[in-house]
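Retro notes (design track)

What went well: tokenization of the new backbones is finally stable.
What didn't: we kept losing track of which sequence belonged to which structure.
Fix going forward: every design gets posted as structure first, then sequence, in one message. First example under the new rule, 275 residues:
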């Protein structure tokens, strides 16, 4: 599906020193909007495939995607010599109001039309393929016409994009709706995976939140293991966006993900493991 393989991690300046010591890392992802006119040296020196990950295109909006934001994503892709870029199946603004969060798109045919139109416009402006990520949603729209699996399959059929399968988001959505995560995951278009996300979360007020600032639950790691045992071996990466743990904890998470994905560990040569 893509040139990506192996274990990856979301590159953030706060953990750049740890990432620089990882041996055998397959790729990195970086928030596209965080990249200025010059790529961070600590990122480019890794000499790895780098995927710009957009968070602001709002492709699920019924408004036409902002051409300037597409141009910026294309610029970052070229700057980093990226093999692909990725964004979310979501919207973040309506009118002049910025939500500040990824909001779920109604799973309707009308929303599919708008999303497919914006993806087509975006794809025409990019120098590399676009992959789209399933998000964690705390609610469903009352006028949903399709299941998440049906919606994603239809979107991929219409646009030809690949899927960034966020396994933690599948877990979150299933847990909050009282469903079985593995059953829900199998209903997604798994033959179109570009790569996978793994991230942590926590329960607040009885609801599971995909925070990216908490440890990865063992249940999410086991969901990855089930995917691996089913015969699928996509590239997988860890996302962490704050409350960075001590290096040893972060490396242990990477080792657990590598084990679940039947990949070689990447932390063995770091100073924290050697000491």
């Amino acid at each position: 599906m893509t040139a990506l393989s192996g274990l990856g991690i979301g590159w953030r300046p706060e953990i750049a020193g740890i990432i620089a010591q990882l041996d055998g890392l397959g790729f990195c992802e970086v928030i596209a909007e965080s990249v200025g006119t010059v790529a961070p040296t600590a990122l480019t020196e890794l000499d790895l495939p780098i995927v710009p990950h957009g968070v602001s295109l709002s492709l699920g909006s019924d408004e036409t995607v902002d051409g300037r934001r597409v141009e910026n994503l294309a610029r970052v892709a070229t700057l980093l010599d990226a093999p692909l870029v990725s964004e979310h199946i979501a919207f973040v603004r309506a009118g002049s109001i910025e939500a500040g969060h990824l909001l779920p798109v109604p799973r309707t045919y009308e929303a599919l039309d708008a999303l497919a139109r914006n993806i087509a416009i975006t794809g025409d402006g990019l120098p590399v393929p676009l992959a789209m990520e399933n998000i964690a949603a705390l609610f469903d729209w009352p006028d949903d016409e399709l299941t998440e699996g049906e919606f994603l399959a239809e979107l991929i059929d219409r646009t030809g994009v690949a899927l960034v399968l966020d396994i933690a988001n599948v877990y979150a959505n299933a847990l909050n709706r009282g469903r079985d995560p593995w059953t829900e995951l199998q209903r997604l278009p798994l033959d179109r995976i570009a790569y996978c996300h793994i991230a942590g979360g926590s329960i607040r007020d009885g609801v599971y939140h995909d925070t990216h600032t908490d440890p990865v639950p063992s249940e999410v790691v086991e969901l990855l293991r089930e995917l691996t045992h089913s015969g699928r071996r996509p590239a997988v990466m860890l996302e962490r966006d704050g409350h960075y743990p001590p290096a040893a904890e972060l490396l242990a998470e990477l080792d657990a993900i590598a084990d679940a994905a039947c990949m070689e560990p990447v932390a063995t040569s770091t100073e924290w493991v050697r000491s």
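Added context from the reviewer: The first helix runs from residue 16 to 19.
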